[in-house]
Every structure is written in structure tokens, then in C-alpha cells.
Design brief:
Elements (H helix, E strand, L loop, with lengths): L1 H17 L3 H12 L4 H5 L8 H41 L17 H15 L3 E2 L5 E3 H4 L24 E3 L5 H9 L6 E10 L10 E11 L4 H16 L5 E8 L2 E10 L16 E10 L1 H6 L8 E8 H9 L6 H4 L2 H4 L13
Parallel strand pairs: 1-4
Antiparallel strand pairs: 2-3, 4-5, 5-9, 6-7, 7-8, 8-9
Helix pairs in contact: 1-4, 2-4, 5-10
The chain binds 3,4-dihydroxyphenylalanine (DAH).
Amino acid sequence: MKEKVEVIKTSLDSDLNSVTSLNDLGQLKAKYLGKKGLVTLLTSNMKDLSIEERKEVGKIANEIREEVNSKLTNKEEELKNKELNDKLEKESIDISLPSKKIKRGSRHPFNRIVEDVEDFFVSMGYDVVDGPELETDENCFRLLNLPDGHPARDTQDTFYIDEEYLLRTQTSSVQAREMQANKEKTPIRMICPGKVYRRDEDATHSHQFGQVEGLVIDKNISLADLKGTLELFAKKMLGENTKVRFRPSYFPFTEPSVEVDVSCFKCGGKGCSLCKQTGWIEVLGAGMVHPNVLRMGGYDPEVWTGFAFGTGLDRFAMFRYAIPDIRYLYTNDIRFLEQFDRKDEENEIK
Ligand code: DAH
């Protein structure tokens, strides 16, 4: 018996020395500890032995079983570690290799303008609201004091879908929506940036372009509030030295109405090609909300007053980035968009 045990021990040691994979180790396990394994066989003739002998053989067999087991487990651990290390070595990353250049996009010049406009008005306590581009004639015209047949309708070349539906020609439609939606008739302070559509196309007009509408309704709102607001707005968008001037004008939804000019940010007002030597650039339409518009929106004009303004967003992008053709803003030509990388955000007029 002792001899057998010694044979097992030496054979195990040499087997363990030559084993190199976990798979082979599994086979060794079977060779020694399996049903017909060498260690198992040591006790195969137990029933033929006396009680004394059984005790003796059982003890030796247990000891050798334990020894074999622990050696196999140690080897298993060793092989597992080795496998992991090999794997790590193989998969190691060479951090000195130059990486593939990732092409980064940039914010679209139009969106930069929208974000600046929103930032400014949100800081003044306005809500930013949305309205549908497919609009009713009612919201786009009638509720804004432009009844059927009104001559001013001709100035907005409208895409009609049918008798009642159209693609909105102005974000002013959202004025009508907001007034109706405000059931409690509380003060309103909102802007609505969005797309509008007109049957028009050349270097400075696109069939689709962006506008932002502003509407304030409260008690005791005056033209001075409008002017103060637009002055701050113009400075934010075009630079601290920008001056603002109001010229009398006409819009059906405001009374009085004004057209708003800003001092030319290119020549500072001296006169240049951009401002056509006048020193001023027209940027906005605005005025005090017409009593009819207030009334149709459910606000009593004896109690409430308000101002409204509307301006094209594309023009601001064209001014700021000296973009010569409005269509560049909509064709998504990568050669155009690439020019607006992050660097020039620092050079924006703020
Ligand atoms: N909706 C006008 C347009 O598209 C712009 C405008 C003018 C909006 C005066 C206003 C306003 O709110 O008061 O030409």
C-alpha cells in the first residue's frame, strides 16, 4: 500500500510538471480522483480487508486524496493566473500610438443665434414657447387684425394648404395662440423662435426662414418698455455700442407700430456698404399690441396693454458671420458648416 502511494506521488509530481493548460489539468483530475482514478482504486478492495486494515488503508487513502486534491487546486490557480496574465499581455494597449482623428461637429450658426436670443429673454423672465408651423388662417391672420381681404395679407406670400390651413408666414401666430391659451388672462411674457414660410427666394430671402416673436401683456406696459427691452436686446446680439432707433411704421397687429433700426455694427454708424451708407440697419418690426388683437385674444384693452416685436433670425446670423447668401444656412454644405468650429465662438460679437 505504502509503495502504491509513493508511486502515485511521484507520478503526480511529474504529471503536474508537464501540464500546461486547464484542460489537461481536468484530465489529470480524472486520472487520480475520478471513479476509476488511481487514488480511488487504492480503496477498491476494502471489503476484503479486516477492520484494522481498513482503518489503516482508509487513513492513508484519505491523506493521499487530500494531498492530491490540494496539489491539483494549487496547480489550477497557477494556470488560471498564467492564462489571465497572458491575456492581459496580449491585449495591452499601446497608448503612444496616434489615435484616429475624430471629426467634431459644431453648433450651426443659426442655432447659435437662437440660443443667444433665448438666453437673453429667459434672463429677462420671458417664457420660450413653441407653435405649429402648419397653422390656421385664423391664428396667422384673422386674430391678428388681418381679416379676409385685408391688403396687408398680400405682403406675405402665403403657402396655403386649403381654405383654412397654411404654412405660417410669421411667428406672430403664436401671439394669438398664447392669448387664447391663457384662460385666466394673466400677464404674458413670451418669445417664440421658429420657422416660417413664404413664397420667396433669392440671396436674402428663402422660402423657409427663422423668426422670433416677442409678446408682453400686462398692466401699464408702454412704448418706453419696448424701447428699453429692444435696446438691451440689440446690445446683446450686436455689441455693447449698438444704438437703436424707432421709425414710425405700420403693422395691422400693433398701434402704434415701429420699425427698429440698429446702428451699423460694421462701420459704427459712419456709413459703409453693409448699411448702404446710412449708418443704420433695419432689424425689427414692433409696436404696442392693437386693441383689436387684445380683444380677440380675450384681454380687455381698457385694462391691459402690451407690446410685441418680431424679427428674422437668419439676418442676425448673416450679419454676425458675414454670410453673403441666406441659402447657405439651409443647404448643409459641410464646407460651409466646417468654418464654424469652436474657435470662432470666442470671436463672436457679444
Ligand atoms: N410679423 C411681422 C413680419 O413677419 C414682424 C412683426 C412686426 C412682428 C411687428 C410683431 C410686430 O410682433 O409687432 O414681418
